């Protein structure tokens, strides 16, 4: 019993601990074994409840053997559990700098509450006390003025307003600001607590220890701590300085950074009144938003503007705070706090604001890649059809000559996929073999042989009037963006088709095939280099770049997603102004008619299902004429398929004819992608066509008959 409980808690601890580690390139945490757990549970004073176990995990998390690292990719942001949200003065202050923008503040409170109720641990650093107090004190001053003084202020506008001391405004506004927060959060059943801090709280070890203890206790009680610098007693801001790697607290940006690191948070969201980091101040010529920012490589490419219209910080202050945070293993996103659902979208991995990352970025920016592909397609179109065919034949030869390198790279991908627990159907799509490379090379040579009339072929010739002819000819599309999943053999196929038709190409393959795609793309570049710029066909390295590419209608003419229905739908939704050539699943049928050559039918069925079951044109449903239930064909084909390790499922009409039949199919619209298929019975060819039209995906369907 004790061992059973121990194993249960061990699994719980492993799940809990793994939530704090991100990506596949990071060192994994040490494995927590039942033996280790037993030693913890038997330690005197250790609480052996689930809450006690969580506390044990927190203690283990600080152990040097479990190295936490900053989140590197947007898709992993949702795995962070402790999040600090910093609200800049420009976000929650009205344009007149007197009072709060209640609509924006209510939206932010709603998002923070939703995440808190989802199970995240939320902390907030807020500005706004000065603005709230300024509104309150100005109202008091106006009430004490005579009528003549009041009219004078209104006539002179801002110049006639009394100058208010910021510390006094902060003192007057703190209580009102927190009362407002409390009322808003209570609407969602969330409790809050105010924590006022000053710079000495971070420089004094005892104060810092007390602050950490207070915050940990509040988080444990499911209370959101709301922090602010105690501006009522704060000294004037000093010049920013960085002593011994510790950022000084000079504004709320640096305060939020220190807080995120002190509390071992996973993510810091700095909310401003701009969309993120731009290459130069927003609105200036050539300014471009950076969706990701690497302090090591991007700092030299950014020019900062002035400070915030309100508050002490500016974008340069935010970047310094964010860079320091990232260096202490806390992920950071700078975003526009006025954008709808910005916080929720960031946590869900959507491309909002600028994400700080230390992940290495390979290759040039995607905008440069798209531009080079456009230039390359013009060079490709200027070649003769014979030269384009030479490029493809050269690539076909390289696939054989360099097969050892290709297969070695592919083995790395396959081994990593197996270690990651990828489904067998996806692993089969990933695997390359010598036979596959031979077939691939032969297919490329066929493309080259038939490519000579792809461009400039006359499709229609009409004489409009005497001396005026109208001719329709084939021309290249331009630049293609092709997105495919874990099938590396698609890369040379698509590249060959693109070269044969004079189109530039941007390729984005699945991360599972990283090493395979890399070597195959290098071979494409090698084949292109003697004739056109190798950038004519480029490989996009990051999935985050797809969103950017789908906006570049000035460079990209057509998007072709190859993969699941979900992938196609997502690309269609995200593409802005660029046509998407989509497709549905590969629910493919083979119908064996009553007049079929049954020996040939067996061979066709086995080949269609077993040769490459992961292919999108593999057979998923076998339809047989009802007469074959009496000829023995049904029993024979089932025996043959079972010998090939195919799992057979029955359609409802087939099962109604059998006393003992296969397992019922859950749906007649299933694309299995592996060694499974459905068998169904139909009355005649018309019935088969009706079935295919109802359940098929219009991909590949076959009728076997001698009629």
Automatic annotation (TrEMBL):
Pfam families, per the entry: AA_kinase, Aldedh
Annotated pathway: Amino-acid biosynthesis; L-proline biosynthesis; L-glutamate 5-semialdehyde from L-glutamate: step 2/2; Amino-acid biosynthesis; L-proline biosynthesis; L-glutamate 5-semialdehyde from L-glutamate: step 1/2
Reaction(s) catalysed (UniProt annotation): L-glutamate + ATP = L-glutamyl 5-phosphate + ADP; L-glutamate 5-semialdehyde + phosphate + NADP(+) = L-glutamyl 5-phosphate + NADPH + H(+)
InterPro entries hit by this protein: AceGlu_kinase-like_sf, Ald_DH/histidinol_DH, Ald_DH_C, Ald_DH_N, Aldehyde_DH_dom, Asp/Glu/Uridylate_kinase, G-glutamylP_reductase_CS, G5K_ProBA
Any single GO BP term: L-proline biosynthetic process
Keywords: Amino-acid biosynthesis, ATP-binding, Kinase, Multifunctional enzyme, NADP, Nucleotide-binding, Oxidoreductase, Proline biosynthesis, Transferase
Record EC number: 2.7.2.11, 1.2.1.41
A GO cellular component annotation in the UniProt record: mitochondrion
Ranges of residues in domain Aspartate/glutamate/uridylate kinase: 82-336
Domain Aldehyde dehydrogenase: 365-663
Membrane listed as a keyword: no
UniProt keyword Cytoplasm present: no
GO molecular function: ATP binding; glutamate 5-kinase activity; glutamate-5-semialdehyde dehydrogenase activity
Family (UniProt): In the C-terminal section; belongs to the gamma-glutamyl phosphate reductase family. In the N-terminal section; belongs to the glutamate 5-kinase family.
Protein name as it appears in the record: Delta-1-pyrroline-5-carboxylate synthase
Lineage, top ranks: Eukaryota, Metazoa, Spiralia, Lophotrochozoa, Brachiopoda
């Amino acid at each position: 019993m004790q061992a059973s409980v121990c194993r249960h808690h061990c699994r719980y601890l492993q799940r809990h601990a793994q939530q704090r580690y991100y990506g596949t390139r990071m060192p994994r945490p040490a494995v927590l074994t039942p033996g280790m757990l037993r030693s913890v549970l038997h330690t005197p004073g250790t609480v052996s409840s689930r809450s006690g176990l969580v506390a044990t995990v927190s203690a283990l998390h600080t152990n040097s053997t479990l190295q936490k690292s900053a989140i590197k990719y947007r898709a992993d942001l949702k795995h962070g559990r402790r999040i600090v949200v910093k609200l800049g003065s420009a976000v929650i202050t009205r344009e007149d700098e007197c009072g709060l923008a209640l609509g924006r503040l209510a939206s932010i409170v709603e998002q923070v509450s939703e995440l808190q109720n989802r199970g995240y641990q939320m902390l907030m650093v807020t500005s706004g006390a000065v603005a709230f107090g300024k509104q309150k004190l100005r109202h008091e001053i106006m009430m004490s003025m005579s009528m003549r003084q009041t009219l004078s202020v209104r006539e002179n506008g801002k110049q006639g307003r009394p100058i208010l001391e910021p510390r006094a405004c902060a003192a007057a506004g703190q209580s009102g600001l927190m009362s407002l927060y409390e009322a808003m959060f209570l609407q969602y059943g969330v409790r809050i607590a105010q924590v006022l801090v000053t710079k000495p709280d971070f420089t004094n070890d005892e104060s810092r220890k007390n602050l950490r203890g207070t915050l940990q206790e509040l988080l444990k009680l499911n209370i959101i701590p709301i922090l602010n610098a105690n501006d009522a007693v704060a000294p004037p801001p000093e010049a920013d300085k960085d002593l011994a790697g510790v950022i000084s607290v000079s504004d709320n940006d640096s305060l939020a950074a220190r807080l995120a690191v002190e509390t071992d948070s996973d993510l810091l969201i700095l909310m401003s009144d701009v969309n993120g980091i731009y290459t130069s101040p927003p609105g200036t010529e050539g300014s471009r938003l950076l969706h990701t920012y690497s302090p090591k490589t991007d700092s030299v490419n950014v020019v900062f503007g002035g400070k915030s219209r309100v508050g002490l910080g500016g974008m340069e202050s935010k970047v310094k705070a964010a860079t320091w945070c990232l260096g202490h293993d806390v992920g950071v996103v700078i975003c526009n706090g006025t954008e709808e659902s910005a916080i929720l979208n960031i946590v869900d991995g959507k491309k909002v604001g600028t994400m700080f990352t230390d992940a290495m970025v390979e290759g040039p920016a995607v905008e440069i890649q798209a531009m080079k592909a456009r230039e390359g397609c013009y060079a490709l179109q200027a070649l003769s059809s014979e030269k384009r065919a030479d490029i493809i034949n050269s690539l076909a030869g390289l696939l054989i000559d360099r097969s050892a390198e290709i297969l070695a790279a592919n083995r790395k991908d396959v081994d990593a996929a197996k270690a990651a627990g990828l489904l067998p159907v996806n692993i089969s799509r990933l695997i390359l073999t010598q036979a596959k490379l031979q077939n691939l090379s032969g297919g490329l040579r066929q493309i080259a042989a038939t490519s000579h009339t792809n461009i400039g072929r006359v499709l229609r010739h009409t004489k409009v009037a005497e001396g005026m002819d109208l001719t329709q000819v084939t021309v290249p599309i331009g630049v293609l963006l092709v997105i495919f999943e874990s099938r590396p053999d698609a890369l040379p196929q698509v590249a060959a088709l693109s070269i044969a038709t004079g189109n530039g190409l941007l390729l984005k393959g699945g991360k599972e095939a990283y090493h395979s795609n890399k070597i195959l793309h290098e071979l494409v570049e090698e084949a292109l280099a003697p004739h056109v710029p190798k950038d004519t066909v480029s490989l996009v390295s990051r999935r985050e770049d797809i969103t950017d590419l789908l906006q570049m209608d000035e460079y990209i003419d057509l998007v072709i997603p190859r993969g699941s229905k979900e992938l196609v739908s997502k690309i269609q939704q995200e593409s802005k102004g660029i046509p998407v050539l989509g497709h549905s699943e590969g629910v493919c049928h083979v119908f064996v008619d009553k007049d079929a050559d049954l020996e040939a039918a067996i061979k066709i069925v086995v080949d269609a299902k077993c040769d490459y079951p992961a292919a999108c044109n593999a057979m998923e449903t076998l339809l047989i004429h009802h007469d074959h239930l009496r000829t023995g064909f049904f029993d024979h084909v089932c025996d043959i398929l079972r010998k090939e390790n195919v799992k057979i499922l029955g359609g409802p009409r087939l099962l109604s004819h059998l006393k003992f039949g296969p397992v019922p199919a859950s749906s007649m619209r299933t694309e299995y992608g592996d060694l499974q298929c459905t068998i169904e019975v139909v009355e005649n060819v018309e019935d088969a066509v009706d079935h295919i039209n109802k359940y098929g995906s219009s991909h590949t369907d076959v009728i076997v008959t001698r009629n």
